[in-house]
What we know:
By secondary structure, the protein is α/β, with parallel strands linked by helices. The chain folds into three domains: about 5-70, Winged helix-like DNA-binding domain superfamily/Winged helix DNA-binding domain (Arc Repressor Mutant, subunit A); about 90-165 and about 270-300, D-Maltodextrin-Binding Protein, domain 2 (3-Layer(aba) Sandwich); about 165-265, D-Maltodextrin-Binding Protein, domain 2, CATH 3.40.190. The protein is about 45% helix and about 20% strand. It has eleven helices and ten strands. It has helices spanning about 5-15, 20-25, 30-45, 60-90, 105-120, 130-140, 200-210, 225-235, 250-255, 265, 285-300, and strands at about 95-100, 120-130, 145-150, 155-165, 165-170, 190-195, 220-225, 240-245, 255-260, 270-275. The chain is globular, with a radius of gyration of 23 Å.
Amino acid sequence: xxxxxxxxxxxxxxxxxxxxxxxxxxxxxxxxxxxxxxxxxxxxxxxxxxxxxxxxxxxxxxxxxxxxxxxxxxxxxxxxxxxxxxxxxxxxxxxxxxxxxxxxxxxxxxxxxxxxxxxxxxxxxxxxxxxxxxxxxxxxxxxxxxxxxxxxxxxxxxxxxxxxxxxxxxxxxxxxxxxxxxxxxxxxxxxxxxxxxxxxxxxxxxxxxxxxxxxxxxxxxxxxxxxxxxxxxxxxxxxxxxxxxxxxxxxxxxxxxxxxxxxxxxxxxxxxxxxxxxxxxxxxxxxxxxxxxxxxxxxxx
Length: 301
């Protein structure tokens, strides 16, 4: 069997983007070019790789195998490039990091600045997304390293480092409850509080804890922006629930305080650095992981 390996990229992008049109926009080519390359690929392989007549592109079994072959080939090339970079002393390379918004902080910036100062020619691509998307990017080798809150147990994900980060009630220092040593979830029923939207991992954990206590959370405000939640907490009577890692700057400045919540499930959550199970990270990503651990260990442990 003879086929052009470069044609597999078209199929791969269609699978990633969900349609030929979306793939064509990403690749900056006409949709007809994507369709033609996939048709030629099917002729070369002697099988169909896409199911026809669907709104969203879906791979056939043969298409799944072809995409896996392409992904594995990318992995082998990355490993070779990593070894060559190691020989050259990590002078070049690229790293893709995916993370939840709560990790976008001075702590991360300090780790990145230190790394870029040591390795100025290594490119870093940072993608901010929800937990499920971050984990998907890591599983599909679209990101070398993921950073998520309280990573669920998944067969293809390994947690490289976990930092205990309880979910706490967050409010202004002038709030009536700011002097309390702890609060309960039941206390929230009489408060003006804001929470992340239900697709956030933080909200999933909160809802499960409330369910265990036979409570129903009814926030006055929900948002997919942590900035909006923090701004709400800075108002005289506003409260939200976040881990300290998401508000380190505000805590140090005294703009916000965090109070433990009396809940075992909310006290055992963590901030996690993850990679795909079995993936050999390239040298640049391995080195960046060391920088992350060093800065996070200093601040969070």
